[in-house]
Amino acid sequence: MNTDARKLFQPTRIGDIAVANRVVMAPLTRSRADEAHGDIPGSAINVEYYRQRSNAGLIISEGTQVSPVGKGYMATPGIYSDEQVEGWKHITQAVHEAGSKIVAQIWHVGRVTHPALTGGAQPVAPSAIAPRVQAYTHQGKVDAPVPHALSHVEIAQIVAEYRQGAVNAIRAGFDGVEIHGANGYLIDQFLRDGANQRTDAYGGTVENRSRFALEVVDAVIAEIGAGRVGIRLSPVTPANDLSDSNPQAVFGHLVQELDKRGIAFIHFIEGATGGPRDVPGFDFAWARAHFHGTYIANNGYTREMALEAVESGRADAVAFGRLFIANPDLVIRLQRGAPLNTPNPQTFYTPGPAGYIDYPSLEDARDQAVAVA
Fold this sequence. Notes:
Blueprint: E1 12-14, E2 17-19, E3 23-25, H1 44-52, E4 58-65, H2 82-97, E5 101-107, E6 124-125, E7 134-137, E8 140-143, E9 148-149, H3 152-171, E10 176-180, H4 186-191, H5 206-209, H6 211-224, E11 229-233, H7 247-261, E12 265-269, H8 284-290, E13 294-298, H9 303-312, E14 317-320, H10 322-326, H11 330-336, H12 362-372
Helix pairs in contact: 1-2, 3-6, 6-7
């Protein structure tokens, strides 16, 4: 039983999910799925990677695409085929046996991809506006092309793919899902007017630009219940060439609508993803006050910042990304104030175990010291 009295390390509930502490492992693309056989997760190193990090109260899986067209990076896993579901079962079982909970981040990248990654299909988006980004393919970096603007029929089909992704996540043993609505991917593209120039029911007003996100949320809730549904949002990040003329208006409306639906959590990237926190345009304290589910804070949190945020009530939980890459026993290190390993960016997306499952834990360091002595 956890005897650390500080709230960050105390049990709580995130919607219907009981967690052992309030440290969350953020979703982390690691590009180590079996691409040759259909973007299948669940290899021995995949299982070990998640098992090692199961000291987190909640693990949010790496982004897992809901369709082949939703794929934006090499060797990322899917959640749309039976083979993928079977692969994920090995991971969720290992996480549960180690005492943690895990939700699947369900994902569609929209325009941030290339036909070389989607089986030849043209990328899709709310509007036919090419993002100023490059896609990483087996042939190297290539400019993302002009996407196809989705029709109403196609939008409904993608909503159905998210719905099925949630069903498949529960089949695979996940405790719930996080809908990826952040970082310039498809849902974010609909929300923000830098990418959404539509003049129909999915564009223009903040209500219309929020429609697709809420249709996805409603479809997922209908299948697995609001208490097992979360969403990730990044109101002010410029990631993947996105911008908005009034983030407070569109994301304020969205937060209020999400609150009405009683979802388990919103996972906020506060500021620019992986960058400055003090980006103007959205009041995160306002969001904290107006959303009554679990507020998960993210972006550059240190141990001291996380302790203060949860103790003060500014957040209910704190998500860590890169620190979890390099520190499989991060929760223990945070509790003890122990030194942290430094992640190696050169191995973030490379195949194999190096930089994936070989970062030492405190226990490893102790065993090495005993052996030397």
